[in-house]
């Protein structure tokens, strides 16, 4: 049996399966629906939540998996922002998650991986008038999912403004009063817009809006999703914030690395400003481990 395999199959869309036999791990990728990872089974445990109906409906925003957020995380003010004197309208979390990505490569050598590309097109330029290219490689190895990102500015004489992120939905087997292992000392609660001290855990059960960890120095966060399983995210320093959110009566928690705070395209205090011809590289790694009781 091969250690690593990459295969395609037809479902509602063309899906790609990355498998690692030695660790009983499997990842499913759907390029057509925003280049999203829809399923992530590590060491035999499925850690992602997915509302299948939202995946099958091409008009719906997918509730589940790990949506790609670009060029914004969250909204712009009243869905509108200005750039160079021109008004643009952009929906929640930007254009990447509603675009079809193309497959440009895969590998079974030392890992199971697939590389997807999204380039600016007429549809993206209606909301975001810049020439960009995203190259994402999803790599499954040692029972971990690595998302290697390359953000490219194809403009010849203009900077590329953005703040990217991820929106992974983790399936919960227990309640939403969860301890998060992080060195953050405070967070902003978007339910009342108050800054609060972080005391080691956050209870999302009765919260409608998200909270955002503000001052973490270490690019890592870990948390239990059941009495037996703990998930860990590791990410580069460019992801300054982690947004945490859930939806009432749904068995998931979203733990989301973001490069800037909501409304940053309007505020413009922490935008990534990528020079013409420039490239930013980053990595997000998701792993899980068995908890000892």
TrEMBL record:
Domain of life, per lineage: Bacteria
Record-linked InterPro entries: Aldose_1/G6P_1-epimerase, Gal_mutarotase_sf_dom, GH-type_carb-bd
Alphabetized Pfam families for the sequence: Aldose_epim
Any one GO MF annotation of this record: carbohydrate binding
GO annotation (BP), single: carbohydrate metabolic process
UniProt-listed SUPFAM superfamilies: Galactose mutarotase-like (SSF74650)
Name of the protein this chain belongs to: Aldose epimerase
Originating species: Paenibacillus soyae
């Amino acid at each position: 049996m091969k250690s690593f395999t990459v295969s395609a199959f037809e479902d509602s869309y063309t899906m790609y399966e990355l498998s690692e036999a030695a660790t009983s791990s499997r990842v499913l990728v759907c390029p057509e629906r925003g280049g999203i990872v829809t399923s992530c089974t590590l060491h035999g445990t499925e850690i992602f939540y997915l509302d299948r109906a939202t995946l099958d409906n091409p008009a719906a925003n997918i509730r589940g998996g790990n949506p790609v957020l670009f060029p914004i995380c969250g909204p712009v003010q009243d869905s509108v922002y200005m750039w160079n004197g021109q008004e643009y309208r952009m929906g929640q979390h930007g254009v990447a998650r509603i675009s079809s990505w193309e497959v440009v490569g895969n590998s079974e050598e030392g890992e199971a991986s697939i590389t997807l590309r999204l380039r600016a097109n007429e549809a993206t330029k209606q909301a975001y008038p810049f020439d960009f290219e995203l190259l994402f490689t999803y790599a499954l190895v040692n029972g971990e999912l690595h998302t290697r990102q390359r953000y490219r500015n194809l403009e010849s004489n203009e900077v590329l403004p953005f703040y990217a992120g991820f929106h992974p939905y983790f399936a919960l087997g227990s309640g939403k009063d969860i301890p998060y292992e992080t060195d953050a000392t405070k967070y902003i609660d978007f339910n009342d817009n108050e800054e609060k001290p972080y005391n080691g855990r956050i209870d999302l059960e009765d919260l409608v809006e998200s909270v955002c960890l503000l001052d973490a120095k270490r690019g890592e966060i870990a948390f239990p999703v059941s009495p037996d399983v703990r998930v860990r995210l590791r990410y580069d320093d460019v992801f300054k914030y982690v947004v945490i959110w859930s939806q009432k009566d749904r068995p998931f928690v979203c733990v989301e690395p973001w490069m800037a705070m909501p409304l940053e395209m309007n505020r413009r205090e922490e935008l990534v400003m990528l020079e013409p011809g420039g490239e930013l590289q980053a990595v997000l790694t998701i792993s899980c481990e068995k908890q000892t009781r």
